[in-house]
Specification:
With 225 residues, this protein is α+β, with helices and mostly antiparallel strands. It has two domains: 80 residues; 122 residues, no CATH class. It is 38% helix and 23% strand. The chain contains five helices and twelve strands. The chain is elongated and about 75 Å long. The termini are far apart. The C terminus is likely disordered.
């Protein structure tokens, strides 16, 4: 009886770990790209059937079967990517996710905003991603919004820099956010404006690039470093 109970507990742990790995892969893909990719299940099925074949039919040890199954799945993935796609319609420009949000070892929130025509920023997706990390925010595209008066302490909340590839990197400290305030982010094709606003307050919005009244990352002059 005890062996049956222990066996069922182990089966539950194994099955739960499998579901957790699948959920982690889908969550990471969606969090980075904003696209739900269900191809993970197909490749896991290939690995599972390959492992069964190598262990039950080929009579190989389980560790060897797992290694061979992973190798086989990798070969299948490579073969699919190597197939010619000349006969398929291809979009002129790929629309990629324009941001990534993560947590730094110090507990701050790291936001990367990529620039370029191939990137598409979904304001609601960015707002929700920041909210998960404890950062209330108003996100707009092509305009900047503020309130009058504005909360103080922007320099304690946000530190900004520009990467070599043109992407804007913001380090946000949610604990330094003043009470009743939220972050206002204005996304432009060539720059980013950010400031603090009072949540629920009357907004003043203008379609101008980053200026002197708010924090901003402007495009670098040609030839500068």
């Amino acid at each position: 009886m005890m062996q049956v109970i222990v066996g069922q507990i182990l089966n539950g742990i194994i099955l739960g770990s499998l579901y957790g790995i699948i959920a982690l892969g889908v969550t990471m893909t969606f969090g980075i790209t904003g696209i739900v990719n269900f191809a993970l299940g197909q490749f896991m099925m290939i690995g599972a059937y390959a492992t069964w074949y190598f262990t039950d039919l080929a009579m190989l040890p389980f560790p060897v079967a797992v290694v061979l199954a992973v190798a086989l799945a990798a070969v299948v993935i490579g073969a699919l990517h190597a197939q010619p796609r000349s006969g398929l319609p291809r979009p002129a420009k790929a629309q990629l996710a324009a941001f990534t949000v993560s947590t730094t070892p110090s507990g701050s929130t790291a936001l990367t905003l990529r620039k370029g025509e191939q990137y598409r920023l979904d304001p609601d997706a960015l707002r929700q991603a920041l909210a998960v990390h404890g950062v209330p925010a108003l996100v707009t595209v092509g305009r900047t919004c503020d309130t009058n008066p504005e909360p103080t302490g922007l320099d304690r909340v946000v530190a900004a820099s520009r990467n070599a590839d043109g992407a804007v990197y913001l380090t946000i400290n949610p604990e330094a956010m003043p009470s009743g305030a939220e972050l206002s982010i204005g996304y432009y094709a060539t720059g980013t404006a950010f400031g603090l606003i009072y949540a629920g307050g009357p907004l003043r919005c203008a379609a101008h690039p980053p200026g002197s009244q708010v924090g901003g990352i402007q495009p670098q002059p040609v030839g500068s470093t």
